[in-house]
Write a structure and sequence with these properties.
The protein is an all-alpha fold. It is built from 7 helices and no strands. The protein is about 70% helix and about 0% strand.
């Protein structure tokens, strides 16, 4: 199976991604910006897309969903993710979530212990990098370096 071109993906999925984002964001401008971010990510990672792992639509949906989650966390810090994401989860999305969680768990176990601890403290406990530095006794600069390195490893492992 051949990989689709960037232009073909954009033409096939832009309107669907934009509609999804528009229905879940505060404004059309935010949805447009997020849609742009999604397709930048799609184009940057197209060479790593593996049709054996997921369909194109699943892959694009994952990128869209993670972009939306980042937006919600940034726009509304401290608020739990609400119906913007979870209420519309259907059977396909549940399968995607399960597959993603399994790949994430495998990627986390492959990290060095301190990298794994930083990721867990940052995204599960929702601590700032400054707080992680204080808690672990690792300098703030080193926490930033290890955090970035761990994220890169995880993103490579989960595709």
């Amino acid at each position: 199976m051949t990989k689709p071109t960037a232009e073909a993906l954009y033409n096939a999925y832009h309107d669907k991604v934009l509609a999804y984002l528009t229905s879940r964001t505060d404004s059309r401008e935010d949805a447009d910006d997020l849609c742009h971010e999604v397709f930048e990510q799609v184009f940057r990672s197209l060479s790593r897309y593996d049709p054996a792992k997921s369909s194109v639509s699943t892959w694009i949906y994952q990128i869209t969903r993670f972009t939306l989650i980042d937006y919600i966390r940034t726009k509304h810090p401290g608020e739990p993710l609400n119906g913007n994401i979870s209420e519309t989860v259907g059977p396909e999305e549940k399968i995607i979530q399960k597959e993603t969680l399994e790949r994430l768990a495998a990627a986390l176990t492959a990290l060095e212990r301190d990298e794994r601890d930083i990721i867990i403290l940052r995204y599960y406990k929702r601590l700032s990098l400054t707080d992680i530095s204080r808690l672990t006794g690792i300098s703030y600069g080193m926490v930033k370096v290890k955090h970035k390195k761990a994220l890169k490893k995880i993103s490579t492992d989960i595709g």
